[in-house]
Request: fold
Amino acid sequence: MTAKSADARSAKRPRTQAAHLPDTANMTSRTRQPTRTRIGLISDTHNLMRPEALQYLAGCDAIIHAGDICNEAVLDALTRIAPVTAVRGNNDTGDWAASLPTHTTLTVQQVTILVVHDIADVGADPRSQGIDVVVTGHSHKPMISERDGVLFVNPGSAGPRRFKLPISAGILIVEGAHASACFDSLVP
Reply:
């Protein structure tokens, strides 16, 4: 089709159709950026829901608790901030904890996240299972590392201090197929 025939065809369109077409002369090209999802990471609260942790997690789109919750009230407090995904840790016992899985996966945008309390329970090759991020707890030691294309995050413990380890929590940022993480001390 030549430009002349396209112009001729456009001229025959009823005005009502043309009114609904965008004015491309005034449009600018924009690249759509992926939505940014902010996920709070917390673990090993051991029945202590610190106000500093609640403040740190405020504004998150979702929260992951990597186990050793020790009391359902901790999850209730977190749920008032954002939807919570939680797994059962080795200290989570009783009827309330029986319904918690020992591990779970969730997909946020294009990132698949495995949540498990103890890193020893992660398979040898999470990448082969389509896992992009592994969130664990148990050690009380905050840690972020990447191995074989998988981001491993342990937010540390937000509960009672253990030895000289920091009291900490973390944030996972997901943008499309990309994930990044950080952790912060909650108390001096």
